[in-house]
Write a structure and sequence with these properties.
Strand content: 15-25%
Shape: globular
Number of helices: 7
Largest sheet: 5 strands, parallel
Structural class: alpha/beta
Order of helices and strands: EHHEHHEHHEEH
Number of domains: 1
Bound molecules: 1,3,4-trihydroxy-5-OXO-cyclohexanecarboxylic acid
Length: about 150
């Protein structure tokens, strides 16, 4: 079942355009297109309409967040390394917020200490980390329950 509030923005930050070149032990070896294809299938099964965005530009990412509610009713954010230090991006998410789930392919809490910090702390409905691509499905389920699309 879907309703009119079913748009989910799936936002990837820095270095996700070359996901297939990054450490497969950590990130699974998929390209971003392959990951987005899976996310798209899961989203539709849950009655959600996905919109995808990726950039390596912090300014562009902030710009997208400034107008988030115009394009989306909810969001998944994997901001990559920006997650851990870009206060600008954290502040930008607070400008025009929608219910958001933070996602990481790898288990950020089991890695270096600097990855344990998130600029989105307190701004997101949930964090899904360390579950690989399947983590996006879990995050979409949170969104589907929040928007009431399933
Ligand atoms: C990541 C984890 C971050 O620490 C890292 O900088 C990334 C990917 C993940 O999905 O596991 O670029 O967000």
């Amino acid at each position: 079942m879907s309703n009119s509030k079913n748009r989910v923005a799936v936002l990837h930050g820095v270095n996700f355009g070359v996901l297939e070149k990054r450490d497969p032990e950590l990130y699974g070896g998929l390209s971003l297109s392959e990951l987005e294809y899976r996310i798209s299938g899961w989203a539709r099964e849950l009655g959600l309409d996905p919109i995808f965005f990726q950039t390596d530009s912090e300014a562009e990412f902030c710009g997208y967040l400034h107008r988030l509610s115009e394009t989306a009713d909810a969001a998944l954010i994997n901001a990559g390394a920006w997650t851990h230090y870009s206060r600008a991006i954290g502040d930008a998410l607070a400008v025009d917020p929608v219910p958001t789930v933070e996602v990481h392919l790898s288990d950020v809490n089991a890695r270096e200490d600097w990855r344990k910090v998130s600029v989105f702390d307190g701004l997101t409905a949930a964090v899904v980390s360390g579950k690989g691509p399947d983590g996006y499905r879990e995050a979409l389920e949170v969104v589907a329950d929040t928007l009431g699309t399933r």
